[in-house]
């Protein structure tokens, strides 16, 4: 019988939970879009693609003759090389550090991992003649918290949350925003806290939700204080990075083999 480490068990449980959660999310997106016969109207490709939101999936653009596949290949290969180097050289170095410090040191590797996965997805869909959307949209260029979470970071789940959670409640913006961050926290709890409990028998429930509710409170504070453009950027990075041990916790670090 094959013996897996705790980290690999976490990764397997993460995927086991992710698949049904993703399919349910896709069905919710289709329902919101008014699609009642999904396989006839959308086709199977949407269900095995990593994008959860139908509007996001429909952002695929046709690859024009002048667009270089070689450039996309080089960029994707560069991203994969960078994250490989991180796993080989950097991650083993930080494992001896305290957990809270590992969380901060894993910020850039986690971002690189998302970029590499996004690049790999774009490569896999190139034979279809279409460019799929990127996972992240230059998050370092975000001007404020709503810009970061609503347009820049992790569009796989962000676009779905906007379509399925925020838009139905948009006439009550504060309620819609609170519900969006709350649902995001619950989804992350299912993907991270549940596998952690199943593998280690310990609870980290509430950390993920707490992180996303902090983001909600930070946006409310930003709007209440009517900050300048510089103040908004400062609050953005304080709110996103300072509580990062809550979201890049031991469960997340184990799932993605970033420490812990």
Topology overview:
Elements: H1 6-32, H2 38-41, H3 45-48, H4 54-57, E1 61-62, H5 69-94, H6 99-105, H7 107-125, E2 130-131, H8 145-152, H9 155-166, H10 173-200, H11 207-225, H12 229-241, H13 244-247, H14 250-255
Antiparallel strand pairs: 1-2
Helix pairs in contact: 1-10, 5-7, 8-9, 9-10, 10-11, 11-12
Question: Averaging pLDDT over every residue, what do you get?
Answer: 90
Q: What is the helix/strand order?
A: HHHHEHHHEHHHHHHH
Low-pLDDT segments, ≥5 res: none
Number of strands: 2
Strands in their spatial order, largest beta sheet: 1-2
* Largest sheet entry: 2 strands, antiparallel
Structural class: mainly alpha
Level of helix content? Answer: 55-70%
Figure out the total of helices: 14
From the N-terminal CA to the C-terminal CA, the straight-line distance is 26 Å
Outline? globular
Radius of gyration using CA atoms only: 19 Å
The percentage of residues in β strands lies in under 5%
What's this entry about, in short?
This protein is mainly alpha-helical. Helices cover 70% and strands 2% of the residues.
Identify the notable features of this structure and list them briefly:
260 residues, two-stranded antiparallel sheet, mainly alpha
Protein described:
With 260 residues, this protein is mainly α. Helices cover 70% and strands 2% of the residues. The chain has 14 helices and 2 strands; from the N terminus they run H-H-H-H-E-H-H-H-E-H-H-H-H-H-H-H. The chain has helices at residues 6-32, 38-41, 45-48, 54-57, 69-94, 99-105, 107-125, 145-152, 155-166, 173-200, 207-225, 229-241, 244-247, 250-255, and strands at 61-62, 130-131. It has a two-stranded antiparallel sheet. It is globular.
């Amino acid at each position: 019988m094959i013996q897996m480490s705790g980290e690999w068990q976490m990764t397997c449980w993460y995927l086991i939970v992710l698949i049904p959660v993703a399919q349910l999310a896709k069905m919710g997106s289709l329902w919101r879009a008014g699609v009642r016969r999904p396989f006839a109207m959308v086709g199977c490709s949407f269900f095995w693609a990593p994008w959860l939101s139908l509007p996001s999936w429909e952002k695929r653009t046709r690859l024009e003759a002048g667009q270089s596949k070689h450039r996309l290949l080089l960029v994707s290969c560069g991203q994969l090389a960078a994250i490989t180097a991180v796993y080989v050289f950097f991650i083993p170095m930080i494992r001896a550090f305290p957990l809270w410090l590992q969380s901060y040191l894993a910020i850039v590797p986690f971002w690189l991992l998302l970029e590499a996965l996004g690049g790999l997805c774009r490569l896999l869909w190139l034979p279809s003649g279409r460019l799929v959307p990127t996972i992240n949209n230059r998050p370092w260029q975000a001007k404020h918290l709503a810009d970061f979470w609503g347009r820049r970071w992790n569009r796989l789940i962000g676009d779905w949350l906007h379509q399925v959670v925020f838009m139905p409640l948009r006439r009550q913006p504060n309620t819609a925003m609170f519900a969006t961050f709350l649902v995001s926290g619950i989804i992350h709890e299912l993907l991270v806290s549940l596998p952690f409990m199943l593998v280690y028998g310990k609870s980290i429930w509430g950390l993920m939700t707490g992180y996303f509710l902090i983001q909600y409170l930070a946006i409310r504070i930003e709007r209440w204080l009517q900050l300048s453009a510089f103040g908004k950027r400062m609050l953005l990075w304080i709110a996103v990075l300072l509580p990062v041990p809550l979201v890049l916790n031991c469960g997340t670090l184990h799932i993605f083999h970033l420490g812990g």
